[in-house]
User: Fold these one by one.
Assistant:
Number 1:
Amino acid sequence: MASRINTILVVGGTAGIGEQLVRRFHASGKKVIATGRNQARLATLAQELNGLETRQFDITDFSTLQSHAAGILEDFPDLDTVLINAGIQKSFSFFDPSSIAAGEIEREIAANLTAPTLLVQAFAPHLLSLATKGTPATLFVTSSALGLLPMGFWPNYCATKAGVHALALSLRQQIAFAGEEAKKNFNVVEIVPPYVDTELDKEHREATLAAMGENAFPPMPLQEYIDQFFKALDETETDGSLKKEIGVGTGAMVVQTWRDSFGKVYEQFGMAT
C-alpha cells in the first residue's frame, strides 16, 4: 500500500470510519484531502492534523457535485487515490408508513448510491489517465456486509449497498476493456465493513437491538476495525496490486462466500470481477 497511495481524497471524512481513515492515512505520511458537510468538524481535523487539506460540500447537492470534483482535480492534479465513504442508514418497515417519510428514503438512496455513482463518474477518467500512463491509481468504494447479506431492519440501506457492490464490479469490467496498462495500474477496491460502532445507526440502535432480541450482536469497536482494515490493506497481491475487497469480520466472510459462488460464475464467463 505504501508506494501505491500518495495523495488520497477521502469523501465523507468527518466522522466514524471516514474520519479514522483520514487520521490513519495522514499518520502514515500520505497527502490527504478530506471532505464533508460539517465545516466545524473539517476545521477541527485540519487544526489537529498538520498539512491536511479539506473541502466542504454536500455530496447530495448534485447541482454542485461535478464542480467540486473538478475543483479538487484542478488543485491536486497528482491525486492518485479516491475513497468514497459517505453514507447514511435508516431503519423502517414498509408495512408501517409512519416509520419513515418518502423523502427520507430518497435521501438515503441519494447519499448511498446516486452520489457515489456520480463521484465515480467524476473521478474515474482522471484515475484512468494516470493508470494508462503507468502511475498506480486506486478507487475505493465503501459498501457493507449488508450489501451482500441483507437484513430487513435496514431495507433501503442494504439495497443501496448492494448497488455499490455492483458498481465496483461494473467499473472493474470497464477497466478491463481499457487496455493492459489500465488493468495493471488501476485498482478498484470495495471496502466491506461489518457492523462497526459509529454514529451511523445512532438514531435506531437501541430499537433495532431490542427487536433482534437474543440474536442481537454487538458492533465491532471502531479502532479494532481500523486496525484490521489497514492490516488487510497491506496484504497486497504478488504483483503489488491491492485486494479487490477489504472485508473485516462479517465483511470478510460474505466476500469469501461471494467469491466462491458468483465469482466463479464470472470466471466461467471470462469477465473481470
Number 2:
Amino acid sequence: MGWFSKSSDDFFLSTVVPQGQGGAQVAQFLGLVNGEAVIGANIFRDMFSSVRDVVGGRAGGYERALAGARESALADAKAAAQELGANGIVGIDFDYEVLGETNGMMLVSVTGTAVRMA
C-alpha cells in the first residue's frame, strides 16, 4: 500500500508525517483525532453482488457505498481536528471492519494526528 496525501481548502491530509524537505512542515502536534462511518448492505446491492461473485467483475454499488463511508469518516476526523485548531491531519490510518450478526454492515474508521502546519 502506498501513501495518501492531499491538500484542499487550506487543510493538509497525509498518511505520512512530512519532514519539511522543501515541502510541508509540521509546526505543532495537537492530538489524536478519528472519524467513523457504518454502512449497511441492502437487498439490491446484495443481489447484484451475488451475481458478481458468480460471473466476476467489480461490485460498483458496494464500491460507491464504501467510498461514501470513507469520505464521511474522513470529514468527521477533519471536523474534530479543526475543533482543536488544526489545519492538517498526518499519520492517517484507514481501517475497515465487517460488523453485524450476518456481516451485513461495514465500519470505516479514520485515525490520525491533528497538526498545525507551518
Number 3:
Amino acid sequence: MWTHKPWQGRFLPHPLPPDERLRAYASHCNAVEGNTTFYATPARSAVASWARQTDPDFRFVVKLPKTITHERRLAGADEEVRAFLDAIEPLGPRAHALWLQLPGSFAPDDVPVLAGFLRRLPTIHRYAVEVRHRAFFEDARSATVLEDVLARAGAEWIPFDTVAFFQRPPTSDAERDAWTKKPRMPRRSRALTDRPIVRYLGRDATASTVEGWRHWVEMATGWLREGRSPTVFIHTPDNADALALARRFHDEVRAGVPDLAPLPEPVPAAPPTLF
C-alpha cells in the first residue's frame, strides 16, 4: 500500500526512490497490510529493505502467498512455507502476525486441514486467519469449532467488516468494482488473543466511512482498556483518503484512551514554500 499512486505528492513525497517509500508511509501509520506477498514470495533483500525503513515496533501483518492458501489449500505446501518464512525473517519483531486469508470455498469441513497446518508452523510467529465462508458466521457450531482450533494455536480470527459498505448501492466506479469483489459477511467482533486485528471497509464518502466505524472505535477502546493491543486497518473502495482516515480513527480511539501513544508526525508531502 505504501506505493498507492493517489497518495504520491498528496500524503507522501513524490518522487521517492523505492527504498524510501515505506519510510514515508510509516510516518503516517504504524502498521501495514503486507498484501503483495499474496501474489508472490518477496525477495529476502526486499524484506530487509522494509525492515531498514521502519522502527522495530512497526507492525507488518503479512499475507501468506496464494500458492499456499488458495492453490494448495494448506496441503503439501511445506516447501513454499519454508521459502516464505525465510524471506520474511529480516522483519524480526516487525512481523506482527502472519495472515492466512482463506478462499470463500474453504468451509467448516476443511477446518481439520487448517488445524494440521497451524500445528506444523513454527511458534516463533503469531498467526491470524481470515475466513470467508458464510457458515463460519451464521452457524454457531462451525464458528465454535474454528475458534477452538485457532485458540489452540494462539491464532487470531481476522474479521473483514463490509457491513457499512453494503448498506447502500455503489455511487462511484471504485465502489461498483468493490461491490462485485468484496465478501458480504456478518460483522464479527470477538477477539481470541491479546492482539486482535480488524479490517474495515467503508465508502468513498468520508461521512459514511466514519459513521460505519463507530462500532470499531468502541471495540478498540474496550480492547485497549483490557490490556489488548489491537491493529485496525481502514479501507475505502479507492483508498484515496485511507491514510488520513486511519489517523482520524486513531484519534477517535485515543480520545477514549488518552494513554494511547499518538501516531508519528507525517513527513511533509512537499517542501515548504515561502508563500
Number 4:
Amino acid sequence: MSIPDPSGPPGASGTSKTLHHGLQVLELLVTHPQGLSLTEIAEGIGVHRTVAHRLVRTLEAHHLCRRDRFKRISLGTGLVRLAEPVEQDLRTLARPVLEELTDAAEASAHLVVRENAEQVRMLMIVEPRQARMHVAFRSGQLDPIGRGSAGLAMLAARPAVAGEREEVARARERGYAVSTGEIAPGITGISAVVPTGRDAAETSIGLSLFEAPDPDRLGRLVVAAAHRLGALLK
C-alpha cells in the first residue's frame, strides 16, 4: 500500500521533511477514496504512528482530510476550495471550445475531470442553442470511472490491463469512447481525453445526445475539440 517517492529522500537539501510527509498522506488518500485507518497511513508513508497522527491532525485543521464515525480518514472538502482557481481557469478555457463543439454537433457538450481513482466529475456542460431537444446534466455530478464515455476515455488513455472492458479497448483503438445508457437511460455519450502532455489522463471532453446516427463523425468532432483544448492548456 506504500506510495512511491518521486522526489527523493525526505530531508534532502532545500526541502521540508514534514511537508513532504503531509503531501504523501494526501497522495495516499487519493488512491484510497474509501478511507484509511491511521495505522494504514503510517505504514503507507513509512512513518511512526505518532508522526502520522500529528500529520493527520494538521491536515484536519485545514479541512484537507476528515475522519468518519469509524475513524477512517479520507480527503476533506478544503481541497475543493484549493482546486477552485485551477478549475475556474479550466472552465474559462474550455467554454468556447465546448460552445463550438455543441454548435457543430447540435448536442450537449460536456467537460469531465477525474475526481479520484474510482470516480469522474461533470465539471461543465454546455447545451446547444439550436437543437429542438437536448440532454441536460447537473454540473458536479459524480459517476463511476468505469461507466460512461468520459471515464472510459480516461481508462483507454492508460496501457491495457487484464480484464478491462471491451469498450475500453475499442476506445483505445478509435481514439474516443462511446457508451449508451450507462449514465442515463437512452443517452449516448461520446468522449475523448484532452491531451495535456501529462502522464495521467485527468480530463475528457465529449457529447451527450439522444441519438447518434453517425458516431464516427461525432467522434472526429470530439477528438478535434479535445486537441484544441489540450493546446490551450499546454
